Amino acid sequence: MPWLPLYLGLVGAVALERLAELRLSERNARRALARGGVEHGRGHYPAMVALHAALLAACAVEALRFPSPPPPAAWAAVAGVGLSQALRWWAVATLGERWSTRVVVVPGAPPVVGGPYRFLRHPNYLAVVVEGACLPLAWGGWRTALLFGLANALLLRVRIRAEERALGPGWEAAFAGLPRLVPGGRR
After folding, report:
1. Which top CATH class is 3-174?
2. Which of 66, 67, 96, 172 has its CA 20 to 30 A from that of 26?
3. What is the pTM assigned to this prediction?
4. pLDDT digits over 125-151, tens only?
5. 54 exposed, middle or buried (CB, 10 Å; 0-12, 13-18, 19+)?
6. CA distance 181 to 187
7. Alpha carbons 63 and 141: distance in angstroms, whole number
8. 166-171 long-range CB contacts below 8 Å, 24 or more apart?
């Protein structure tokens, strides 16, 4: 079976999903700004975009550089990619026009506490963490998974702090007691 083309097709499909996500994000950010929204955390945004683009490129490069049959756990990793996409789009659908890859907050808007936000403060970031591990590991790309995981952890630390500051005390009160990324994890 031609495993490498299938894997590269998966990486390509995720890349296309990311492009669709960016288009939706741009539209939603424009609308939020038109309603008086304020953008926060601009300084880390270029690094975030570059890191996510690098993940996709590194997945393809590592697969081409180390062509071998997929590991035994490949199907579990592919399932993880699918589940991460489902969680991401559940978060996007729940936030509706408020969702953006940028941190744009409309003053006075009440916190969204439905959908996956009933369980976690940042379900979309959990989706990013799972996808960042599972997409490279679907081909055995442990190098990419490790490097992206470390860089993403550093970036998420900055991103989550900026986002939580921007959302303010009303958001903090609504989410008191809920973990950030992992059910049952740190608050």
Report:
1. mainly alpha
2. 172
3. 0.92
4. 999 999 999 999 999 999 999 999 999
5. middle
6. 9
7. 7
8. 166/38, 166/40, 166/41, 166/103, 166/105, 167/105, 167/111, 168/105, 170/110, 170/111, 171/111
